[in-house]
């Protein structure tokens, strides 16, 4: 076998998968048909859940250093500021990263590309997948190499992280139903001054659509994204200056553009692959789903696809899990993609519909509803969970099992276990739970009862145990953050989602859970 896993595509999804496999010691080969990293930034928003994963990967400091924290979003309509959504405050109790990090896709790719060196890996550029042949034990992949010659390699698994026109998807005969939107987006990197609230996201809703102003690193540097007015669609020779009048009409005459260093237009599609897997080949990221950029979810969803698949593939490659474990990748990620497509579709239609009524709704009603709703703590929490991707759960997955007896509102199997600060020894320091978790193993959190020691017979080396000390401050934190009162235990999968949840811990329940899921610890 030439490699355990062939990763096709070195966009954000492929780079995340390569890093996650590399740090788990899997022999993975990552190839891309381009000659080097992308120069354009495309996606901009890094969500809280992605930052949590970056922290476990050891790249969060670099990302925070290069990015700009968006702590608030301001909603404008017809020249007036209608509402401010305090992104930072909303998520403070949910994630160590309660904000949207504005960091271009090119920077994200650079950070993850550099990290590959830690595992002795690098991208093989100018290398294109052209054919695939599956057999029961391996896949033969044909690669066109930089000198134009072709080479056949044998690999155990193939990960198609090769974008919306995925060769892996097409060669596997998986359809990609959906359609393009009629609207055309534009994106411009500008230096501008105006009424925009500095360092925050500014959203301008207008009768014919919307404009977003993202604060970027550097003085008065704004990324402007919007939809083209109908009369400018279909033009290949469009320049930024032609779009400026419509932007100024809505963002105010005080708006002044000093320069524009990049301008591009693009059409977007909404599509989801009918399956995310064909035997030994998987689809991840844009190869599996594409949707409107509303909500800055696209890149983040691909990164989470990779985080979901990586630990499962690593266990199977190591021989510590049966290949049946891999079925859960599709079971868990297809519903996430379909839900995302539905919500971004509805939100997109609402904010871009050309109808007169929709225009009126957008500028007169939507902004006021948002202003009212965002004043409500419950709505804020719900919105943060959805947008930051911290609320994604796999409750219906075959890997999720909740035993009876847990209090109402406590985390269930499939949930991302909440972020908390806890004491793990009586009178010990208060520690960040997420820092304690080892995301290359399962983690067993034991509350209100003695915790078994690491290495307890039956629990094996695949599992770390964390006993939560009996202490009033812990009880308070558990009750307020997770509604956990009384004894409980949570077996977390390596990706931080709860696999098994219950009250009184019995080692036999944990070992039964793992063996029924074909995991051998
Ligand atoms: C102009 C634009 C603006 C966008 N803005 C946003 C935004 O604001 N927010 C957001 O969330 N998303 C945005 N997106 C979407 C976002 O860029 C994608 O969701 C993200 O790039 C998906 O990452 P990926 O790694 O799955 O795929 P890609 O980034 O498309 O990477 C796929 C890689 O596979 C390689 N490849 C393809 N075929 C082969 C082959 N046969 N062999 C070898 N290599 C191959 C390609 O060269 C490419 O490098 C935008 C997209 C565009 C086009």
Any overview of this molecule?
With 521 residues, the protein is an alpha+beta fold. The protein has three domains: 3-67 and 103-176 and 273-325, FAD/NAD(P)-binding domain (3-Layer(bba) Sandwich), CATH 3.50.50.60; 69-96 and 177-271 and 353-392, D-Amino Acid Oxidase, Chain A, domain 2, CATH 3.30.9.10; 401-516, Glutaredoxin (3-Layer(aba) Sandwich), CATH 3.40.30.120. The chain is 31% helix and 27% strand. The protein has helices at residues 12-22, 48-57, 60-66, 87-90, 105-115, 167-171, 240-251, 298-318, 327-352, 356-373, 377-387, 433-436, 472-482, 507-516, and strands at residues 3-8, 28-31, 45-46, 68-70, 73-77, 80-85, 100-102, 128-134, 139-144, 150-160, 178-193, 201-206, 209-215, 221-227, 256-272, 277-278, 281-283, 289-290, 401-402, 421-423, 430-432, 442-447, 463-468, 488-492, 498-502. The strands form five sheets. The chain has an eight-stranded mixed sheet with strand order 6-5-12-13-14-11-15-18, with helices on both faces. Strands 1, 2, 8, 9, 10, 16 and 17 form a seven-stranded mixed sheet that branches. A five-stranded mixed sheet has the order 19-25-24-22-23, with no helix packed on it. A hairpin with a 4-residue loop joins strand 8 and strand 9. The longest helix is centred in the middle third of the chain and has 26 residues, at 327-352. It is globular, with a radius of gyration of 24 Å. The chain binds flavin-adenine dinucleotide (FAD). Flavin-adenine dinucleotide binds at residues 8-14, 31-34, 42-45, 105, 128-129, 161-163, 167, 187, 264, 266, 285-286, 293, 296-299, 302.
């Amino acid at each position: 076998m030439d490699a355990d896993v062939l990763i096709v595509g070195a966009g954000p999804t492929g780079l995340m998968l390569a890093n996650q496999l590399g740090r788990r010691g899997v022999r993975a080969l990552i190839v891309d048909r381009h000659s080097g990293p992308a120069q354009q930034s495309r996606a901009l928003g890094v969500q809280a859940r992605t930052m949590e994963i970056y922290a476990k990967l050891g790249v969060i400091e670099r990302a925070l250093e290069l990015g700009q924290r968006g702590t608030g979003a301001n909603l404008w309509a017809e020249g007036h500021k209608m509402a401010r959504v305090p992104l930072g405050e909303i998520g403070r109790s949910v994630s160590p990263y309660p904000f949207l990090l504005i960091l271009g896709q090119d920077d994200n790719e650079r950070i993850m590309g550099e990290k590959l060196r830690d595992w002795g890996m690098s991208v093989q550029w100018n290398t294109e997948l052209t054919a695939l042949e599956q057999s029961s034990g391996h896949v033969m992949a044909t690669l066109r190499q930089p000198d134009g010659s072709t080479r056949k390699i044998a690999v155990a698994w193939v990960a198609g992280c090769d974008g919306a026109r995925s060769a892996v998807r097409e060669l596997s005969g998986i359809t990609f139903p959906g359609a393009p939107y009629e609207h055309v987006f534009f994106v411009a990197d500008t230096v501008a001054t105006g009424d925009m609230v500095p360092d925050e996201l500014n959203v301008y809703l207008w009768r014919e659509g919307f404009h977003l102003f993202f604060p970027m690193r550097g003085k008065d540097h704004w990324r402007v994204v919007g939809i083209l007015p109908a009369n400018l669609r279909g033009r290949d020779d469009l320049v930024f200056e032609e779009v400026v009048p419509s932007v100024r009409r809505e963002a105010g005459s005080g708006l002044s553009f000093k320069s524009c260093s990049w301008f591009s237009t693009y059409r977007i599609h909404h599509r989801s692959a009918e399956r995310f897997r064909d035997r030994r080949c998987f689809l991840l990221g844009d190869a599996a789903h594409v949707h409107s950029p509303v909500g800055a979810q696209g890149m983040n969803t691909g990164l989470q696809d990779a985080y979901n698949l990586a630990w499962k593939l690593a266990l199977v490659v190591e021989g510590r899990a049966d290949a049946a474990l891999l079925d859960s990748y599709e079971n868990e990620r297809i519903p996430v993609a379909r839900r995302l497509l539905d919500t971004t579709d509805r939100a997109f239609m609402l904010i871009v519909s050309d109808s007169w009524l929709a225009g009126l709704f957008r500028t007169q009603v939507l902004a006021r509803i948002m202003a009212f709703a965002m004043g409500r703590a419950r709505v804020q929490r719900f919105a943060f969970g959805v947008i930051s991707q911290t609320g994604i759960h796999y409750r219906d997955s075959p890997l999720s099992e909740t035993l009876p007896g847990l209090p109402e509102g406590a985390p269930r199997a499939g949930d991302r276990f909440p972020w908390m600060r806890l004491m793990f020894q009586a009178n010990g320091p208060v520690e960040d739970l997420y820092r304690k978790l080892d995301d290359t193993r399962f983690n067993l959190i034991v509350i209100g009862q003695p915790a078994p020691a690491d290495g307890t017979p039956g629990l094996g080396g695949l599992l770390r145990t964390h006993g939560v000390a009996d202490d009033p401050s812990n009880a308070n934190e558990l009750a307020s953050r997770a509604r956990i009162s009384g004894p409980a235990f949570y077996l977390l999968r390596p990706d931080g989602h709860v696999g098994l949840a219950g009250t009184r811990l019995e080692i036999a329940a944990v070992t039964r859970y793992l063996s029924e899921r074909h995991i051998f610890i």
